Amino acid sequence: LPTRKVPYPDGFTAEFLHACWSIVKSNFVAVFQQLYDMHGRGFHHLNQALLTLLPKRADASTLGDYRPISLIHLVV
């Protein structure tokens, strides 16, 4: 990952991962160990997304009245 680049909006930069690697390393290793133990059957979990529409105002009636919020790349 190039310096100061993020793979998607609201993502973490390479600098973040480098600075916090001692903290997040065990989580990364655990995720990939689970995928390895499932012999590739769990890779579809890496591409899941949860999308929720939050109303911007109380009388929301059109799509423009909502703000989309999503959580992506969940590993279940």
TrEMBL record:
Q: Which domain of life is it from?
A: Eukaryota
Q: What is the protein name for this chain?
A: Uncharacterized protein
